[in-house]
Design goal:
Layout: H1 3-18, E1 24-29, H2 33-39, E2 56-58, E3 85-87, E4 93-102, E5 106-113, E6 119-125, E7 134-140, E8 146-156, E9 161-171, E10 188-189, E11 193-195
Parallel strand pairs: 3-9, 7-10
Antiparallel strand pairs: 1-4, 2-9, 4-7, 5-6, 5-8, 6-11, 8-9
Signal peptide: 1-23
Domain Chitin-binding type-4: 24-169
Keywords: Signal
């Protein structure tokens, strides 16, 4: 192998080591902050309107942009006061839908109510599986009412990174009169779910 080829190979290895994972995704329903930014749009919400799927940062953050270098507007509460979704939980559950533009091996999906203690309300363990492009979770929000911000984290299995989506809700705890179900075989519901009740 000549010197040029060896240098190119070394550069490729270095690039793969430091570049973000190729997976991308966000909560599309109820609309996350980045979904609102793309679709409404929200004045001053920044460049995430062009890349709602790209709020990626190391795992473990409770900030809406994951405390990464991009999309700080997602953390600016003053921008989002008028952009929320009113929901009536069905038997205490609210359905969250992720849209993945590029899938990746997944460890867990986590959901938190952003309170003083950042209450974890659900975790779904995929055990390294590759999800489809649409992922659906039923998340228990029993005991929560009024305006709440839900942080959804998609934890990638083989990197240090996660994808972050914050969803602003106005929760009406009155049970729906008519139950509805989704009978679309393209939708994915994790069978390995660990629901955490505060």
């Amino acid at each position: 192998m000549n010197l040029f080829a060896l240098s190119a190979f070394a550069f490729a290895i270095l690039y793969m080591a430091v570049s973000p994972v190729s997976a991308h995704g966000y909560v599309s329903d109820p609309p996350s902050r980045q979904a609102f930014c793309r679709d409404v749009p929200v004045p001053g919400c920044g460049d995430v309107k062009y890349e709602p799927q790209s709020s990626e940062a190391p795992k473990g953050s409770f900030l809406c942009n994951g405390d990464g270098s991009r999309f700080p507007q997602l953390n600016d509460e003053s921008l989002w006061g008028n952009y929320f979704t009113t929901v009536q939980p069905d038997n205490g559950l609210v359905t969250f839908t992720w849209t993945l533009t590029v899938a990746h091996a997944t460890s867990t999906w986590e959901y938190f109510v952003l309170t003083a203690g950042n209450t974890q309300v659900a975790s779904f363990n995929d055990g390294g599986a590759m999800p489809p492009t649409t992922v659906v979770h039923d998340v228990p929000l029993v005991g929560f009412a009024g305006r709440q911000t839900i942080l959804a984290r998609w934890n990638i299995a083989d990197t240090i990174n996660a994808f972050y989506s914050c969803v602003d809700l106005d929760i009406d705890p009155v049970r729906k009169a008519n139950n509805t179900c989704i009978a679309d075989t393209d939708l994915y519901r994790s069978d390995q779910q660990n629901v955490l009740v505060a």
